[in-house]
């Protein structure tokens, strides 16, 4: 069983002052749990090493997909293939941040296993980067007793848009006044707060930044503009690439042209859609069958094996099924993603507390692994799962 430490929660008023408005779920329960997961320094280091190794594996797997034209196997929309290739070819298309979802890794001896990689539009950033510190401070705990360098790591990664693989200390002398426009969909508090946090991090890094709701951004052959016709060299959108491909095909074409003509760079890059696809779990298992972090994954149901059926694109546990070794469905969540291609991943149990609640680890990655937090819920983590911070003891 994992070890839990009860804490005093942050009051709703304090959360709202921090800009965190989605603190209460639709059933009236609190989204941020009044507890911390207790981990050791060794366990924190193991999560760090796992995420770093997994990212290197994803890079190698993406190269394999592109070289062998395996886009269909991953469910990649045809109208984004050119954008993916273009972004992959040039290092200026820099991956700002992502989040690995992992099982295991704690005191019950379960090994760390990859569940999936949220590489394109990961949320839980606000909670992991800021709220965990606030929870420790609220409870008079040492704020440094965390695996949590998310804010500074992302700030340094923004600087790498200019310095690339060079030391980010060279940023000031190489920065040429480039601007980043940040966008999210109007009406979603969590996505807007996450996007505005990233804008603040980029501002702290030294960039000129702006914010514009997605529907107000103007795109044409000359580049990307805000509602006041200011042009930007970079555009960060907290909006999934696959949704652009399916729901906004004209935008997908325009963005590809903008990239080809070098009028703007889009963040996170189009190639992160390869990482985002759960079909990559099968490619990874083919390439690295002996990796201790990977679960057996196939494009066909795993016979005589307890496994999980997932769609290649989908969020918050929607359209996920847990299937028994005889093929019967044990548990499932409905959702809007059922038209996507399916993958089948060997089942692994999440860490549990003494009451049987399950905990999924999330490790953020920004050039390297940089922060840990947890989601608490049932067998399938959905949009009613709770955020849980941690403390190193």
TrEMBL record:
Span of domain Glutathionylspermidine synthase pre-ATP-grasp-like: 13-392
InterPro entries in UniProt: GSPS_pre-ATP-grasp-like_dom, PreATP-grasp_dom_sf
UniProt keyword Transport present: no
UniProt keyword annotations, A-Z: ATP-binding, Ligase, Magnesium, Metal-binding, Nucleotide-binding
MF term (GO), any: ligase activity
Protein name per UniProt: Glutathionylspermidine synthase family protein
Originating organism: Candidatus Sulfurimonas marisnigri
